[in-house]
Structures are given as C-alpha cells and as structure tokens.
Amino acid sequence: MSLKTKNPALLLIDMQEGFDNEAHWGGNRNNKDAEKKIKHILETWRKLQLPVFHIIHSSQDPKSPLHKSQPGFKIKDELKPIDSEPLIIKHVNSAFIGTSLKEQLTTQNIQTLVIVGLTTNHCISTTTRMAGNYGFNTILISDATATFDRKGVNGELFSADVIHNTTLANLSEEFAQILTTHTLLETL
After folding, report:
1. Does 165 score more than 80 pLDDT?
2. Tell me, what's the pLDDT at 84?
3. Which of 1, 50, 147, 159 could be joined to 120 by an S-S link, Cβ 3.0–4.6 Å?
4. Whole-angstrom Cα distance, residue 174 to residue 128?
C-alpha cells in the first residue's frame, strides 16, 4: 500500500535562517544539503496535495538567533508556507507543547507524520518522541534533518555526525521509522 493513501502530514520543523549561524549552535553542521532534500519532499507533498505543517521556534531569549526580534527568526525563503499551509509557533522543543498541532492533526484525521528539519537532537527528537507516544505512525527522514557538534559534560567534543546518528538510533523503531528522502519518495 502506498504511503500517499494514508494521508500523511509533512512536518517541517524550525527551517529558520537563524540556523545558518553554525558557530552559535556548535559548528560543523552535518547533512549540509538537508534543505535541498526538504524542498524536494515539500514540492512532492504539494504536488500530491497532502497536508503540510510549518513549525518554527520562537525563543524567549532576546539574544537567540531564533527570537522574533532577530532576522534569524524568518523561515528560509525556499521553504516558506504557501496558501493554507498552517504555521505553528512553538516556544519549547516539542511542536506539540503549547500549540494546536495535535488538535489540528486530530481534526483532519491524520495518523501518519513525516518529520524533517532542525535540529536532530533537539526539536526533531522531542517532537518525534511525543508523536510516537501520542500513537502517530511517525516517519523521520534521516538525510532531511541535521545537527551540530556538541560539547559533552566532561568537555569532550562529539561530532555532528555522531550526535545525529546516535539520536536516530535512539528514535528508531521505538518512536519512529527512519527513512531516507529517496526511500520516502519511493513509498509515495
């Protein structure tokens, strides 16, 4: 059975210009072409007239690149909502906390979610975990997500690839099915 017949919703999470400031987030971002893959998925979704939800982060810290007063708050031009695609603004890592996302999905009888965006170990992981816990059939796209290097609690440096891959490993099977962009598009 084609994934398309399940009326899957595409969640684009935090596709904001503020993430272009790699140094602020830890540097050395992986999956540098994630936006290109997300754009390809988004174009396919629109062509198939499947539901799309844009979710952005509104930091409460005025110094954050994702604060509404900062230029980085803006959604990247190539991934902006069109027509009636909902824009949901969140203030924490989960797209479900303090937003109408779950209600909108329930109202539209959407049970399958495809998640893309930034960053793998923060908002993507938190939203994916909650989606799985809420009982959604959740699909996370490995090459349409990305993250940055992180400093460990003992000062050691973990590369973006290690952070990304261990986050995917933690989410796989228990919270979500992990697919590549190519595999996702083949299932439609």
Report:
1. yes
2. 92
3. 147
4. 10
Asked if 112 and 6 touch (Cβ cutoff 8 Å), the reply is yes
At how many degrees (to 10) do helices 160-171 and 125-133 cross?
0
- pTM, rounded to two decimals: 0.97
Report how many helices (DSSP H) and strands (DSSP E) the chain contains, helices first: 6, 8
Q: How far is CA 23 from CA 28, 32, 41, 111, in A?
A: 8, 14, 28, 37
State how far the Cα of 29 lies from the Cα of 147, in Å rounded to an integer.
5
Q: Which of 149, 166, 169, 184 is nearest to 24 (CA)?
A: 149
Torsion over CA: 175, 44, 119, 14 (sign): negative
Question: 58-91: per-residue pLDDT in tens?
Answer: 999 999 999 999 999 999 999 999 999 999 999 9
How buried is residue 155: exposed, middle or buried, by Cβ count under 10 Å (0-12/13-18/19+)? exposed
Distance in angstroms between the alpha carbons of the first and the last residue of the chain: 9
